[in-house]
Input
Amino acid sequence: MQMPVWSSLQKNNMPIRTRLTILYGTILTVMLSVFGAAVFAIVSVTLPRTVDTVLRETANAILEQSSGPIDTLVIRDFPSLDSLTDVGVAVQVINLEGKVVNSNLKGSFSGYLDPASVQSALSAPNGPYREYQTTVRLRGTRPLRVFTYPILGSKSEQVFGYIQLGRQIDDLESAIQSLLFSLLIVGIVGVVLSAAAGAAMAQRVLGPVDEITRAALEISRADDLNRRVPVTSNDEVGRMGMAFNEMLERLQSLFRAQQRLVADVSHELRTPLTVVRGNAELMYAMGCADIESIQAIVKESERMTRMVSNLLLLSQADSGQLPMKVKPLDLGSILEDIERSANIMSAGRHEIRINVCGDLIVRGDEDRMKQVLLNLVDNAIKHTPADGRITISADCLMGPDKNHQQIKLSVSDTGPGIPAPDLPHVFDRFYRVDKSRSRELGGAGLGLAIVRSIVEAHGGHIDVESVLGEGTTFNVWLPAYEPNVV
Output
């Protein structure tokens, strides 16, 4: 859940530095306010209680020193209270009739220190047994802490009067006011310093982000995908820079692939278009339709149509929108159809073998799977000399995780093989191992790219093994069908 302050700052479209500074300042202001209020409340309560403790101890000391008979008028024979005047404590003794029978207050200060406490003690049903603490201002001047304490009999809980003590606490009030002023000053200074520290921290934290932003803008404006943003740390900002560089790597790879694709398509279309235009001009010059020219035009048009269809299929596969009707498939029956088609395509020039082991059930599109196998078989036939052998095999194996089975489809030939430097590129679009013979064989270099796209769309992968002079094997790995797995 977002903080309300942060949400409101986001709505105002403030820079992140400003938002962080305000947020730091707000958090510290709240913390200092709570801390200061707690300290002020504790001190404001603790200091008066300290004075109350001193006054209570003084009252007990006076009562312990008193002697004489107890009656309703003269409670006791108290010792002289004048000695307490020197220590700043005002004392008076009050009987149950509310009269002051002894006091160290003189002149204009004579009278009750706190009449309210005395009246409450005399009038309340349970009041006589209570002690009262309060702060008053004697004659409206300096503050006085007043403590009213009941006088009890020596052998009973009967109350015979009250002793009331008072002490000026203007020094305490000054201390509390000084504390409040200090807390305010410290709070204000702390908020200012926190704002400055927050701004400096935000600048330091977001400085690398600014560098990444500037570098990204320069890359965008210069159209230079070879550049990379600086990465100076391994924290969140550094990982963001690494992710951005990885994205640039991907974009650069895709851009190069796009450039290569455009160049290859242009190159591939140039030849059929030249043939179509040449034959059309020939017929125009002759003033009549030439059968050979028409056949050449039809052949090259079909070739361009196939190329465009294949490019459309690859484009759909790249975007994850390759149309497929997925269902459980028995590859055994599909391989029987492939064997018949392979014999027709070979026209008896090659030996076709089929090796099938176990149950071969996968989830996939039947037409797409046939397209994969036919492309691999067609590729093997084209690159295998007459009287060579083409083997199509299928087996069910345990996957690398030892928990799920995989179907392995292999198409092997006894052709010339593929050189090792070319193996990593055989699935690239428009890539040909033998540039001089591929056009004669009718290939545009898209078949294996289509095979890989279809296999990956089925959740599998394809690899190739080849030895020069011995032949080539393409292996297709597909997850075996599991009824309980979607």
Remarks:
- The CA atoms of residues 363 and 486 lie 9 Å apart.
- Residues 70-74 have pLDDT under 50 and may be disordered.
- Residues 1-65+169-220 form one domain.
